[in-house]
Design a protein that fits this description.
The protein is of the alpha/beta class. It is built from 4 helices and 8 strands. The strands form 2 sheets. Strands 4-3-2-5-6-7 form a 6-stranded mixed beta sheet, sandwiched between helices. Strands 1-8 form a two-stranded antiparallel ribbon. 32% of the residues are buried. It binds inosinic acid. Inosinic acid binds next to β5 and α3.
Length: 190
């Protein structure tokens, strides 16, 4: 962990370190590259804003091993400013183009209740892609409310609210290079 950053004082403990994220991203990219070696190209669909860090690092890793990739972004919302899932999914930004016949890989930061991903998977499936799979860097197995197939999972983590590496609390902490849990007083003062 870097010394003297503004956020270190707010972090109770690190759950997954920067190096662990880097190594896992490389592993996931190798797995996806192996599974898609016969296809012309893969369309990565990143889910803003949380997946932005993972999307950038995963796409670069995939570029080293895999088929050609293209990137699309969607923004959906199932959370307000708080820390629990509302279950209501709203499209804030849709795909910019047709995905018919494409091999789609959804790039997700975290699967918590699974509600967002379950909805997104169905939404993308309805647009006649050749295939839809999911790569999620984090998953909270104990928080799952709907079963949704996630072919590639980075880390199963405890059912706690985490921040960092794209994940926010009230739009902050996304820039942390690791993932950690906030000190209770951070919530108390917000
Ligand atoms: P789900 O629909 O409950 O699976 O949650 C989906 C979205 O909620 C994720 O893509 C994240 O953006 C956000 N989210 C879930 N858990 C956390 C967390 O622990 N910290 C920050 N954001 C989270």
């Amino acid at each position: 962990m870097a010394d003297g950053t503004w956020y270190d004082a707010d972090i109770d403990r690190v759950i997954v370190s920067e190096q662990q994220i880097r190594e896992k991203t490389e592993d996931l990219a190798k797995q996806v590259a192996a599974d898609y070696r016969a296809v012309e190209s893969v369309l990565l669909v990143g889910v803003l804003k949380g997946a932005v860090m993972f999307m950038a690092d995963f796409a670069r890793a995939l570029g080293r091993y895999g088929p050609k990739t293209e990137m699309e972004f969607m923004a959906v919302s199932s959370y307000g400013q708080g820390t629990s899932s509302s279950g209501v999914v709203r499209i804030l930004k849709d795909l910019d183009r047709d995905i018919t016949g494409r091999h789609v890989v959804i790039v997700e930061d975290i699967v918590d209740s699974g509600l967002t991903l379950s909805w997104l998977r169905k939404y993308l499936q309805s647009r006649q892609p050749a295939s839809v799979e999911v790569v999620a860097l984090f998953r909270k197995p104990d928080a799952i409310k709907v079963q949704v197939p996630v072919r590639y999972v980075g880390f199963d983590i405890p059912n706690e609210f985490v921040v960092g590496y794209g994940l926010d609390f009230a739009e902050r902490y996304r820039e942390l290079p690791y993932v950690g849990v906030l000190k209770p007083e951070v919530y108390a003062r917000s």
